[in-house]
């Protein structure tokens, strides 16, 4: 996969297979299929799985099936998330819940999960089935933890880490670890791949949290300060709270405890982030993680695929 052109070709083939996996016996299912395949998603998880299959020497076709399962789990989690968050838009388009109701969105997410598990079961790969079953458990647990601690000023970094592990990192870890199982690697080697994926997933979520505060809507594709306006404690705010005095920490919590946050509140939180140099601190942290990622990937042959993945991580940072 030496170029973006061949990457596009690979994704077309992947989407064709994904289309076959998702049934459409009912009219509403045709719409759900369109949501998954035409939603504008970047297919980051299946691409990660494919590239790691390449890195560890697996050249079979089962990567498409496993990658499809990862994408279906991800898509189902988005459907469920939008209901929990009462979101009306996803990537600039109306959510399934906004268009057809929350009941339809929840059942559609369940349907996608069923499609994925059915296909995974057909592969007769017990180890891979176990990995993705664990992901489903992690997703549910993290959502419950998030609901319990949502808008709670006592949320700790440990709790935050457990939430992003289940919501994001666990699935990334499954994508990398399952590549090792397809290639017949040892348990220790598969664990190393899993650890890499989990760290990448956590970085991915933390960087996504940063978009809310340090990037314009045009740059990020997200509503500026949406998490803050919703009163959600995300990574930049937790780092800020760990940095400031107890007096300032209480002032921050008061902002988040308000029913609604005003324009002046937005200016205040942005000012605090700037004064305490939080953006640069996070950039330095992410750059340190990048050193680990690049060193880990350097163990694999220097191919176009490896360079592509290294470049993508660099862009993420």
Could you state the CATH homologous superfamily of the domain at 7-198?
Farnesyl Diphosphate Synthase
Distance between the termini: 23 Å
CATH architecture of the domain at 7-198: Orthogonal Bundle
Average residue-wise pLDDT? 91
Helix-strand category: mainly alpha
Number of helices: 16
Strand content: under 5%
Whole-angstrom Rg: 20 Å
Multimeric organization: single chain
Percentage of residues in helical conformation: over 70%
Note the overall shape: globular
Low-confidence stretches: none
CATH topology of the domain at 7-198: Farnesyl Diphosphate Synthase
Can you write the helix and strand succession as a string?
HHHHEEHHHHHHHHHHHH
Main CATH class of the domain at 7-198: Mainly Alpha
Strands in their spatial order, largest beta sheet: 1-2
* Largest sheet composition: 2 strands, antiparallel
Number of strands: 2
Keywords: Magnesium, Metal-binding, Transferase
Protein name: Polyprenyl synthetase family protein
Pfam families: polyprenyl_synt
InterPro entries: Isoprenoid_synthase_dom_sf, Polyprenyl_synt, Polyprenyl_synt_CS
């Amino acid at each position: 996969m030496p170029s973006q052109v061949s990457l596009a070709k690979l994704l077309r083939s992947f989407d064709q297979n994904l289309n076959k996996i998702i049934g459409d016996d009912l009219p509403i299912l045709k719409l759900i299929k369109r949501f998954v395949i035409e939603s504008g998603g970047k297919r980051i998880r299946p691409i990660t799985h494919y590239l790691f299959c390449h890195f560890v020497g697996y050249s079979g076709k089962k990567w498409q099936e496993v990658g499809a399962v990862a994408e279906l789990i991800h898509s189902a989690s988005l459907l469920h998330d939008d209901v929990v968050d009462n979101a009306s838009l996803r990537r600039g388009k109306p959510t399934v819940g906004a268009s057809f109701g929350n009941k339809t969105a929840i059942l559609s997410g369940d349907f996608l999960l069923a499609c994925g598990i059915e296909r995974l079961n057909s592969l007769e790969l017990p180890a891979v089935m176990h990995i993705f079953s664990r992901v489903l458990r992690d997703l549910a647990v993290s959502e419950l933890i998030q609901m319990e601690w949502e808008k709670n000023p006592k949320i700790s970094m440990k709790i935050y880490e457990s939430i992003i592990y289940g919501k994001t990192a666990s699935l990334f870890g499954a994508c990398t670890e399952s590549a090792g199982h397809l290639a017949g690697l040892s348990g220790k080697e598969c664990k190393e791949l899993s650890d890499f994926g989990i760290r990448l997933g956590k970085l991915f979520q933390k960087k996504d949290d940063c978009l809310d505060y340090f990037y314009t809507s045009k740059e990020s594709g997200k509503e500026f300060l949406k998490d803050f306006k919703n009163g959600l404690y995300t990574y930049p705010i937790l780092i800020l709270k760990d940095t400031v005095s107890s007096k300032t920490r209480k002032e921050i919590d008061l902002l988040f405890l308000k029913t609604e946050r005003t324009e002046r509140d937005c200016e205040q939180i942005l000012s605090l982030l700037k004064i305490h140099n939080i953006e640069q601190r996070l950039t330095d942290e992410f750059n340190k993680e990048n050193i680990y990622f690049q060193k880990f990937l350097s163990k694999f042959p220097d191919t176009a695929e490896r360079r592509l993945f290294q470049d993508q991580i660099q862009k993420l940072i």
